[in-house]
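Re: export button greyed out
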Amino acid sequence: MNDITRRDVLQRVTALLGGAALVGGESLAAFTFHEAARAAAMSQGIGAFTAADVALLDEIAETILPQTSTPGARAAKTGAFMALMVTDVYADRAQAVFRDGLKQVDDECRRANGVAFMSATPAQRLAVVQALDREQKSVMDARQEPPPTRAPFTPAPPTDEPAHYFRMMKELALLGFFTSEIGMTQALRYIEAPGRYDPCAPHLPGDRAWAGHA
Amino acid sequence: MRQSETFDAIVVGSGISGGWAAKELTERGLRVLLLERGRNVEHQKDYKNARKGPWEYPYRAGRTRAMVEAYPVLRRDYPLNEKNLDWWVNEQESPYTEIKRFDWYRGYHLGGRSLTWGRQSYRLSDLDFEANDREGVAVDWPVRYADIAPWYDHVEQHAGVSGSIERLPQLPDGQFQPAMPLNCAEEAIATRIAARFERRRMIPGRVANLTQPLPGRGRCQYRNACALGCPSGSYFSTQASTLPFAAATGRLTLRTNAIATEVIYDRDRKRAGGVRVMDAITHATTEYRARVVFLCASTLNSTWLLMRSATDVWPDGLGSSSGELGHNLMDHHFRCGASGISDEPKDKTVYGRRPNGFYIPRFRNLFGDKRAYLRGFGYQGSANRQGWQRMVAELGVGGAFKDAAATPGPWSVGGTGFGEMLPNHANRAFLDRTKTDKWGMPVLAIDCATGENERLMRIDMMNDMAEMLEAAGVRSVRVTDSGYSPGMGIHEMGTARMGRDPKTSVLNGHNQVWDCPNVFVTDGSFMTSSACHNPSLGYMAFTARASAFAVEELKRGNL
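Workaround output, generated via the alternate export path:
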């Protein structure tokens, strides 16, 4: 196998795990069945996430990645993607941290602004999310060992400790948006079959990135 | 038992080796039966995800807990994802026993892993073929570069390998299509490495993707979605490259869902008489007869079939008289190296998704260099402008953050070493009679581990890359070791090694089973040592060579 493919996939998978090891789960048959059922139930919610939860996730994602000159996370239905990923991919502990985090976002907003996140103004939402972003960054950075620069080194012991809930939200919002059709074709640039390879193409400041294949 | 049918040759397995055997034997006039244990995969028509938008995958090419549960082996590395799960084995149906952890990533369908392979294609040199003999390791290869070079030419021209001419003694040049060039960030790094290190070169990967069309196949469209099947047939696979030519002779019979359960040994003639086959769906058995049998079922699977073909003449399996059948299992150890950030060039990017990267050929323990371990390693890697993923760990939310995430970051550059694993008699596979698969066959047990040689080599694999990146002006250089277990390289080799002496090897220098000369094994099982290169090109070359030899021997009446 080609290392580029391997590394690309590993990088993506790591992003999907929410920093937690995966344990348990359903059978493959149940997986296929649930997929169909889930699509039908989309308007009612996803897994343990209600339609209101999905709407709240959409607004959190839109605050992280708002509409600018290109559409934002809400238009790309990022909330539904986040709920699906947490439900079907995240380990139990990470799911619990994420779901509890959803409540905490609302709590933080009420404390700061006296209203729930859904009722807050875009400016109030942004202030709440900025504060949570600073919090998650300091928590997650404190867990991070400086990377080794020479071998041999003692590897950090593996941990199944879930990431800070807002790191999960930010990661899922980025992943969901930038791998959506809107994200790939409007925020980024995507050509299904480029047809040629230019190893040294011009890049001007502000040029959008080329999206990769799945 | 159904009535038997008779062919000139039976080829077991339709992957890289089996496709080549079918092509070469039919083109040389033989009527060939090609057996594939899995289902049919029709070129282009059955590449169902090839044109799918990346956003159409519900988990965006990820893996769910349900998938993780269903695939206890596949989940150990990248193959478990929702893109091409159909092209990996159903682990419930086909279990095996791990005496020690061994990651066995199998593809049981027409074309096998030729559909999903990494396509990196390198020649071994006499530095590799002579190494065992020179160092007193295992047994000597019965082949030298001059024996196989014309066959490398032959398979490269037909398969289509793009690459650059470099005149490096440790990595012979070949019959290449124009290379997929290094990008400008890689080019700058390559220049600095060559200036600083006399024997180290960063070159374009040599890859079985077409940069010029071949009959029936278009050149690469730079989609970098090879493992989904290629709509333009631009990378080498059985379906794109060998099967159409075998079929065009009119002498090929293909049977899918056909599991070879046993090679039938005729003790009077001291030859194989044919192959017993079980229909994977109905479980009905049929005997097919042939004058010559090619085992191309993949390393471990061909050996497993030989072990199942035991008789009272050969109680440990056909080809077992040396005591080496099942032994000397190898892989390439990898998943360690170094990476960093290059800020230059700021005003350049790449257009198109190159399904390839750079290669740094082996430089350790060559040209007077002497390390505390034997053999060496090469690197695969690339430089790419960073994408939105870099923003996950950065502070920031909101419009400016989003727009920044939508523009490319600096170049991320890194390389992973692929290291040679020494042949070791203790690394082996054998029948586990306590467990059977879905078809009632006793499964294979695998007992394999790396040793001190590989452990020491991995330190260099990390530090040498870090040193080269730093010398090239790359910043934030870090070493990584993501851990390795045998099998992860998906380069499993050995278990029916070639040699010069029937007392210490399973195959002779023509891939012929010493104990039964009309049976040939031409997948990775024959490898006498692993070298450090991606091995598939060698399987093609040795298969073509053995096919030509078999046809000549048939004509001479020797089989």
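Chain B touches chain A through 100 residues (CB under 8 Å). The button fix ships in the next patch.
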